[in-house]
Amino acid sequence: MKKILFLTILAIQNIAAQIISYDNSFASNGKFTITNASNQHYINLTDTTDGSLYFTYAKESNIGTTFLSKLNTNGTIDSSFGNSGEVSIPYFSPGFPSILKKQTDGKLLVLGFYEDGTAITRVLPNGQIDLSFGINGTSKIPYIGMGFNADSFGIHLQNNKLIVYGTAFDSNYHLLNHSLIYRLNENGTIDQSFGNNGSINTKGNFIFVDNQSNIISFISNVINTNVYPYGALEKYNSSGQVFSDFGNNGVLAFNSSLGMVNTAFMDSNNYIVCANINNEIFRIHPTGVYDTSFIFDNNAPPFNDGNLSLYINEKNGNYYTSWITGSTGENILISKLTSTGSIDPSFNYSENTTAPLIINQMIINDNNIFATRGNQILKFSLNNPTLATINPLTANNTSISFENPVRQNLIYQSKEKISKIELYSSAGKIVKVLKDSFSPVSELPKGIYTAKITFENGSITTKKLIKN
Known about the structure:
Elements: E1 3-6, E2 11-12, E3 18-22, E4 31-33, E5 44-47, E6 53-59, E7 62-71, E8 86-89, E9 99-102, E10 108-114, E11 117-123, E12 138-142, E13 144-145, E14 154-158, E15 161-169, E16 175-184, E17 199-202, E18 206-209, E19 215-219, E20 232-236, E21 251-253, E22 261-266, E23 272-276, E24 281-284, E25 307-315, E26 318-325, E27 331-337, E28 343-352, E29 362-364, E30 368-373, E31 376-383, E32 390-391, E33 400-404, E34 409-410, E35 412-414, E36 418-424, E37 430-434, E38 439-440, E39 447-455, E40 460-467
Antiparallel strand pairs: 1-33, 2-32, 3-31, 4-31, 5-6, 6-7, 7-8, 9-10, 10-11, 11-12, 13-15, 14-15, 15-16, 16-17, 18-19, 19-20, 20-21, 22-23, 23-24, 25-26, 26-27, 27-28, 29-30, 30-31, 33-35, 34-38, 36-37, 36-39, 39-40
């Protein structure tokens, strides 16, 4: 039988995760410097569940080769990986990160370029080339590469297959006004059942795979502005066929300018989060319309000065970005935006440096952040939000009732308006933030959770809930 429980109000110190310092247990005071790395070839990272890291880079002495290495959890090179800690891959991405992806089976994919197109090499977790993939471990796709701004290329995982895309060029190496999307089988061969004989011809310069394995092509008014002067979204099903129910036969054209978009990614809810050269950050709904609930103010400090990084990351519904400010770009910042685009004032990190180098890729974890900057990999420690600082002070005028145990939806009744409800696991970590009654929670495992309820009048309460 389900029960409605009435809660006693508690006053709680509002604690949010924030950077507290470099992690001094990692490398040298939290910073790993890559020996002989070229600053013209950005570093790309992927982490593992045990806290170790894989990363790609180029050497000053050999910028035509991508090197893949592995760091132990303490920030030292894993000498058992590959050949004394590194793998040499003769395909490169000058002036832009090589794309590094980790499959669910632990195998690593490195995307680079050769003279006539794009090359994807697969590496086993021990650092040996996977000779079962492509030819001698590498699959080559001719006549696709980088765009004018060293962008418009990438790789996505689609179940056990790979979606690879790039700007098309002809046999004379002239860039064309469209991109091509291919799907590779698990062995690296082109899947001829995908699209039109293995590929999709699209005007989009950012390509995504959504949670339903559909292909989303984002045209940010960079390619062929005569057709879509303000940009558009194209949608294809998982097999690369036009999603005719979306927009006008699979295409939804925007009716106002996005500005010159220089970065975009698809978050865990299929929203496309973008930033343009005016340091404006905005969000596009999965239906293809602007998300008016997301409001980012680039005139508010610290965003009213300096330049935004090309990377925006998501964690638990929040977005993390980096910035450089100062007369010479000597100050670096890391900030967090809430799901509605507002700046989280409890999470701000700044540091004065000696060189105007922006933080690039970041990996956001519960207890730390990994970041790349110049020829360094940085590790920051976070203080994790917990409920350990609860003070049992009674407030008398606010009540809320929950259906408990919780099943598919979190159902409650309250006389006061709710600002937000944060659900914490038994380990004290935030696992979901919601607001409305009947919000779905079916994805949460069974167990005991603590709900921290914040009312619009400022009162806060907590209660134990059972998830069945």
